[in-house]
Amino acid sequence: MQSNNYTIVILGPQGSGKGTQAEVVAERFGLVHIDMGGLLRRFVKTKHPLAARVRRIMNEGSGLVPSHLVTEILKRRVAGIPQRRGILFDGYPRNITQARALDRMLREAGRAITHVVYLPISEKTTVKRLALRHREDDTPQAIKKRLATYRRKTKPVIDYYRQRNVLVTVNGEPAIPIVTNAILKKIHG
């Protein structure tokens, strides 16, 4: 199931399985998988003039790299991808500013988003799935706070893509293979 003309974004709250689904979908369609967290972690190890600044920000309490820096790093990565290869974005955009920046960046690169896969899950499922990770910052209170921030910032992004008729909603609650099959059917028909 190869397709080189897709540009896909996967959105969903923490615990929705976006990373897992992104890997499978990218492999299935032969897409370059851009995991924003991984891209930033690799970038800060480079000798690029911005790397030290981004590293400092990531090591601070919030760890949230400003949108303009994220966009600049992403722009460099996208520019290195051959036009014949499709792309899957995982973990970006996180807000409406980034969504608009991504559209501009892709337009400049002769590309456009073909599908935005949204994987909604309940707050109960998020808390349950993240608790299984046993990470220090995955207490129920911390998870609920992150979810509130996610909803506030991401709802406008979801609405933005819905208005552009590229949003595909797939229930993220079922088992991984069921979600994967639903995504593949919605993208590939």
General description of the model:
- There is one protein chain.
- The chain is an alpha/beta fold and 189 residues long.
- It is 53% helix and 11% strand.
- The protein is built from 8 helices and 5 strands, in the order βαβαααβαβααβα.
- It has helices at 18-29, 36-43, 51-59, 67-79, 96-108, 123-131, 140-163, 176-188, and strands spanning 7-11, 32-35, 87-90, 115-118, 167-169.
- Helix 6 (123-131) packs across helix 7 (140-163).
- The longest helix is centred in the last third of the chain and has 24 residues, at 140-163.
- The chain is globular and about 40 Å long.
Unreliable stretches (pLDDT < 50, length at least 5) are none
- What's the overall geometry? globular
First-residue to last-residue Cα separation:
11 Å
- With helices defined by DSSP (H or I, 4 residues minimum), what is the helix count? 8
How big is the Rg? 16 Å
Question: Which class do the helix and strand fractions yield?
Answer: alpha/beta
The helix fraction, in percent, is 40-55%
- Describe the largest sheet: 5 strands, parallel
Helix and strand run: EHEHHHEHEHHEH
Write out the strand line-up for the largest beta sheet, numbering strands in chain order: 2-3-1-4-5
Mean pLDDT: 88
Strand residue content: 5-15%
Kindly state the number of beta strands: 5
Helix and strand topology:
Layout: E1 7-11, H1 18-29, E2 32-35, H2 36-43, H3 51-59, H4 67-79, E3 87-90, H5 96-108, E4 115-118, H6 123-131, H7 140-163, E5 167-169, H8 176-188
Parallel strand pairs: 1-3, 1-4, 2-3, 4-5
